[in-house]
Design brief:
The chain is of the alpha/beta class. It is about 40% helix and about 15% strand. The longest helix is centred in the N-terminal third of the chain and has 18 residues.
Length: about 210
């Protein structure tokens, strides 16, 4: 099983941000730009459409050697032989997902320090923490947690944690200064004129800034 300690840039399939582009080509641009993880996140597709698209993304991520995570759906993650699944607070609890998915990765979305502790105790392999800044990519979004709370995660979280929510090239330095050089970014990458170059710029900051 691939470990995730070395990941810096967590990216997503385009969803509503494809803008008429071939979504698979967009994913490949993210990977060429330095994405360490691709999450299948296609809430507007039917399950059959997600399966068909997911098979193509799975093949692409295998070819490039990057992690492939499925959002929310344990069954689909197993069918696609994904590297793992990412679960929200309202999804299947980890204690029920783990027997099904075995030693594959399980990530948990967290929005408070208490949820971070609970995810660690439950056996999560990594967590997403946020939203750090205000975001428009999620309809039922949580209240922003901010950089001060993100800085506190470092002291209580022994597993890899990924900052998410409203992170852009312009505010990335604040995230890094808060002690986190793992970020998940959706719109700032997917809406960029040059997706590959935007990923490259962000990845460079994450790897070089301490």
């Amino acid at each position: 099983m691939k470990l995730i300690e070395g990941l810096h840039l967590y990216c997503f399939t385009p969803g509503p941000f494809s803008g008429g582009r071939d979504p698979l080509e967009v994913v490949e641009q993210e990977i060429r730009g330095g994405a360490d993880v691709i999450q299948l996140r296609e809430k507007q597709m039917s399950k059959r459409e997600r399966l068909e698209f997911g098979l193509k993304v799975r093949e692409l991520t295998r070819r490039y050697g990057v992690l492939f995570i499925v959002n929310d759906d344990v069954d689909l993650a197993m069918i696609l032989d994904a590297d793992g699944v990412h679960l929200g607070q309202d999804d299947i609890p980890i204690q029920y997902a783990r027997p099904l998915i075995g030693d594959k990765l399980i990530g948990i979305s967290t929005h408070s320090l208490e949820q971070v502790k609970q995810a660690v105790e439950a056996g999560a392999d990594y967590i997403g923490f946020g939203p750090i800044f205000d975001t428009t990519t999620k309809q039922d979004r949580e209240q922003t947690v901010g950089l001060e709370l993100l800085a506190e995660v470092r002291d209580i979280c022994p597993i890899p944690y990924v900052a998410i929510g409203g992170i852009k090239r312009e505010n990335l330095s604040g995230v890094i200064e808060a002690g986190c050089n793992r970020v998940a970014i959706i719109s700032d990458i997917l809406l960029a004129n040059d997706v590959e170059e935007r990923c490259r710029e962000i990845k460079r900051q994450l790897v070089t800034m301490r």
